[in-house]
Amino acid sequence: MHNKLNKLTVAVTLVSALLAASQASASGFQVREQSAKVLGNAMAGAAAGAEDVSYMTYNPAAIGNAEGTQLAGGISFIDAQFELTDASASPAGVPAAVVSYDRGGSRQGGEEAWVPSFAFKTDLNERMDFGLSVSAPYGLSTEYDKDWIGRYHAIETDLQTIDIQPTFNYQATDRLDLALGLRAQYADATLSNAIDLGAVGAQANQLPPTAVGKYDGMAEVTGDDWGYGYTLGALFQATEQTRLGISYRSEVDLELEGDVRYRSDNPTGQQVLAGAQAMGRLRDAGGTAELTTPANMNLGIYHEVSDRVALMANAEWTEWSSFDELVVESGGQELSTTEENWNDTWAFSVGANYRLNRQWLLRAGLGVDESPVPDAEHRTPRVPDADRRWATLGATWMPTTDLSVTAGYMRVFGDDGDINQSGAKPENASRGDLSGTYEVDANVFALSVGYRF
């Protein structure tokens, strides 16, 4: 047992290092790709699948259905693509035909992401199990060219999280498992956007009105924090063939503390920035941003139709309404506010397994996911989210009864999403108008290995 714990310590350290560098984007800023097995079934087995220890990220009670001591590790690769088409941007209240912010930069902002995951469990006694998972349940990465048309609204948005979850499961009856897990969540974020120093200089009579949109600076906010929450789960074996699952993951409140920095790469912009700083504006300082990663709940059913075929379904609710605005403060003053007003959402999925033979299990699934973004006025370049559907395929190879290797593929089809950020809104006074239509799609590849001692 001591040797097993040493291996566990090393594995957690390595996975934590990988997660600290991971970047991902998903519906809202949630990342569901924590298990190749679950992904291969379009997330349909999240609450009730419970095939092995990797399912504990979705339902902590899954470890009650995982025999003996188990390890599972995996990695997902997310290739998200989105582009703003038919775009128009200009200073607040000025038609784009008169003054346009378009400099010809790319309007694509999709990023690639690697998302590792790790899980471990062991039996404490006949009724109690202990498990530990390390995952990245939330993450976001969007980055545009510095001269793109919407640069005053966003250039880089990067959110990285690590969720460390120790879990205890209790076998209440021969058919019912109940689990409680604690969550320690670390978040690190970077937000940047361009500043129209041409407009700042014109307002200060340093530059002529024609300088608007021509001399840019950059503002960047960085911060990190630890937050804490909990997760609950139950797994009920209704019959020999049917299993029901439910899980709940609490929200985590974070106050990201870090720095606000300003800079400009051109001499004219540097002169304007120096003048503004001499007057007490646009100065480097400490900064904070409050962020809540939302609560969510999974409900699922798993049913074995025969020795070869299993069907499953899952419904997931996410409390995105807790993300109502993003406020950055510096020196006790409100630096910027982005009104979000997101809605709570549901995601639904169905999946099937087919056991080809003793060594091979084939997987497939379909899913739909609501976007939390309520309308075009609240869609932003930082999170250009829209309703989506996905289709998945996967396969598990079991060379021995104790070892499994799983690969999965997901194709995400996103709806087009209109954006209509008005410069008339107080938060956009210095950002201007931005409108267009986002086209979104993604490919996800996952690979995981599980071993039972």
Automatic annotation (TrEMBL):
Primary location recorded for the protein, binned into one broad class: membrane
Q: Name one GO molecular function term.
A: long-chain fatty acid transporting porin activity
**A cellular component annotation (GO) from this entry:** cell outer membrane
Which compartments is it annotated to reside in? Cell outer membrane
Q: Keywords for this entry?
A: Cell outer membrane, Membrane, Signal, Transmembrane, Transmembrane beta strand
- Keyword Signal assigned to the entry: answer is yes
User: Any signal peptide, and if so, which residues?
Assistant: 1-26
What domain of life does the native source organism fall in?
A: Bacteria
Q: Which Gene3D superfamilies match?
A: Outer membrane protein transport protein (OMPP1/FadL/TodX) (2.40.160.60)
What kind of membrane protein is this, topologically? Multi-pass membrane protein
Query: Which protein family is named in the record?
Result: Belongs to the OmpP1/FadL family.
Q: What is the protein name for this chain?
A: Membrane protein
| Source organism | Halomonas halmophila
